[in-house]
Design a protein that fits this description.
This protein is an alpha/beta fold. The chain is built from four helices and 28 strands. The strands form three sheets. It has an eleven-stranded mixed beta sheet. A nine-stranded parallel beta sheet has the order 2-5-8-11-14-17-20-23-26, with no helix packed on it. Strands 3-6-9-12-15-18-21-24 form an eight-stranded parallel beta sheet, with no helix packed on it. The protein starts with 10 loop residues before the first strand and ends in a 16-residue tail after the last helix.
């Protein structure tokens, strides 16, 4: 619908450098002392508050805000990288706070690092090369992703947490603060510890996102069956799939575990309960 309002004008502070070839959408605002490289695309309404650097083949989605001293798109921190033309893609409506770093992909990976929409990266968070980050993800201060990590929608990574290369973080998972994650984290799971152990389900997150009592009950029961002491994991997966074949969240966990490849699954302590 045409409101009759004039489109917002693009503004670049005189102290900032935008290299020829960069693409700036309508209403982009670039504050003082920023640098934007020649292969950068900033979509409508993107704001670089000040002192931000966007380099390489980097695309930032509409209305994303980038705060001071963030560094986006510089060469990956990978000794195998030899200057290949790889990409960083950041979605719309994200908030990238101070000192956040994100690197593009590598030829040995997907050649792209991709971040979804509506994400929040707090001060000092790091997204390494070839990571795939979903929508509505929150990375708290100093949370760190190693290379080739995948993070599902609505996951939350607590402050000063670190995720090992090639680990998968499932949707709606919660990583506790100061947690070192060496293995895959199931969807809806809660992990904590110096070396992460599964503590149960992210019940608080499930309630906040409107999961019903019945859905949470099914997840609790399935969790207990999956991580029981009896039988093998393969047998327990088959049992859960046959009992909860019509519960999408439960099937999502089962398929996630079946899809384990590079890393083992984070397991609970013997006395942990959902």
């Amino acid at each position: 619908m045409d409101t009759g309002a004039a489109p917002a004008e693009t503004f670049v502070h005189p102290s900032s450098i935008v290299e020829p070839g960069a693409t700036l959408g309508q209403g982009v605002r670039i504050g003082p002392f920023c640098t934007v490289g020649k292969d950068v695309v900033l979509h409508d309404g993107v704001e670089l508050v000040s002192h931000a650097v966007v380099a390489g083949v980097t695309e930032i989605g509409a209305r994303t805000r980038v705060f001071p001293f963030a560094s986006l798109g510089h060469a990956p921190q990978d000794l195998k990288y030899k200057g290949e033309r790889t990409r960083l893609e950041i979605g719309a409506d994200c908030v990238v706070r101070e000192h956040v770093t994100m690197n593009p992909g590598t030829a040995g990976g997907a050649s792209v690092t991709r971040v979804g929409h509506h994400c929040l990266f707090m001060a000092g968070a790091h997204v390494a090369h070839d990571c795939m980050v979903g929508d509505h993800v929150v990375m708290v201060n100093q949370a760190t992703l190693g290379g080739h990590v995948s993070v599902g929608d609505f996951a939350i990574l607590g402050g000063i947490s670190a995720v090992h290369q090639f680990v998968r973080i499932g949707r709606h998972a919660m990583i506790g603060g100061m947690t070192g994650v060496e293995g895959d984290v199931i969807p809806y799971g809660l992990v904590m510890g110096d070396r992460a152990r599964l503590q149960g389900l992210n019940i608080v997150g499930l309630k906040r996102r409107g999961f019903s009592r019945e859905q949470i009950h099914d997840l609790r029961t399935a969790y207990r069956l999956l991580f029981a002491q009896e039988g093998t994991m393969a047998e327990r997966l088959d049992d859960v799939s046959s009992i909860y074949g019509k519960a999408p969240a439960v099937i999502e966990i089962a398929e996630f575990i079946r899809g384990a490849n590079n890393r083992a699954i984070c397991l609970p302590k013997a006395d942990a309960s959902p």
